[in-house]
Design brief:
Layout: E1 2-5, E2 12-14, E3 21-25, E4 36-38, E5 45-49, E6 61-62, E7 66-70, E8 77-80, H1 83-87, E9 93-98, E10 102-105, E11 114-119, E12 127-130, E13 137-140, E14 150-152, E15 159-162, E16 175-177
């Protein structure tokens, strides 16, 4: 595994092929439109500190197959993904996890790439998630989302899974659109 940590300066990271590359952003301001982060041909991970990210910040991000938003739920996160992220993902799938409230706009991701959103952690959070034009999925763990959450699968044939240790009677709350299965 190769590790990269973004800094407050201009970063230019290229992960080697045939290895898992782990890219970390410890402060939202460390990811800028001038930074370049390119994963290899394996499953590459981008861990993001909680906070608000703009689409411009992801301009130089490519070949990432997994995104994790981390903040222990104390800070809500938001991000707008770029079409380039989906076009360069190995295997045509991107996993997205969050351990706190998250607003995510993946609508720029084209039909050639599916987005898989997973809830994570031991609490229920509020989500506003829009996935892309591919065949996407939502997976809920033992705690469902809180009332007021919004889920839009976008185009494609999208599916929702309930499980991953969910007890009987878990409540999945929120507004759902464009989820076919």
């Amino acid at each position: 595994m190769t590790e990269f940590t973004f800094t407050s300066g201009i970063d230019n990271f290229t992960g080697p092929d045939n290895t898992i590359n782990n890219f970390r952003i410890l402060n939202v301001s460390d990811l800028t439109s001038t930074d370049v982060a390119t994963g290899g041909n394996s499953t590459d991970f981008l861990g993001l500190a909680a906070g608000a990210y703009t689409q411009a910040q992801f301009a130089g991000v490519s070949s990432m197959e997994s995104f994790g938003f981390f903040g222990g739920g104390a800070i809500a996160s938001s991000a707008v993904l770029t079409a380039n992220i989906g076009a360069t993902a190995s295997g045509g799938r991107i996993a997205i996890t969050a351990d706190g409230s998250l607003t995510l706009d993946g609508s720029a991701i084209g039909a050639s790439c599916g987005l898989d959103f997973y809830t994570q952690g031991a609490m229920a959070w509020i989500y506003d998630i829009t996935l892309g034009a591919g065949d996407d999925s939502f997976s809920f763990n033992s705690f469902g989302p809180l009332a007021g959450s919004q889920f839009d699968g976008g185009a494609g044939s999208d599916v929702m899974f309930i499980g991953f240790g969910a007890p009987l009677g878990v409540k999945i709350d929120g507004n759902f659109a464009n989820i076919e299965k």
